């Protein structure tokens, strides 16, 4: 997953110059990702996003 996110980010930065200004340092994605084989509801997604944000703030 990290490989795909990295390649997509590079392509986006090449095609869209405005992203370079907005996302200094070329950090477009968070470090993690969520995979579900059963399906998630909105509450579960919100919890995951909140958890991911807290994790990013901690470093």
TrEMBL record:
One of its GO terms (biological process) is DNA transposition. GO terms for molecular function: DNA binding; transposase activity. It holds the Pfam family Y1_Tnp. Residues 1-52 form the Transposase IS200-like domain. It comes from the Bacteria. InterPro entries: Transposase_17 (IPR002686), Transposase_17_sf (IPR036515). This is Transposase IS200-like domain-containing protein. It comes from Candidatus Taylorbacteria bacterium RIFCSPLOWO2_01_FULL_45_15b. The lineage of its organism: Bacteria, Candidatus Tayloriibacteriota.
């Amino acid at each position: 997953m990290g490989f795909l996110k990295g390649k997509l980010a590079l392509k986006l930065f090449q095609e869209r110059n405005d992203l370079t200004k907005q996302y200094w340092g070329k950090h477009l994605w968070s470090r993690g990702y969520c995979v579900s084989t059963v399906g998630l509801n909105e509450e579960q997604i919100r919890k995951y996003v909140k958890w991911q944000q807290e994790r990013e703030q901690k470093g």
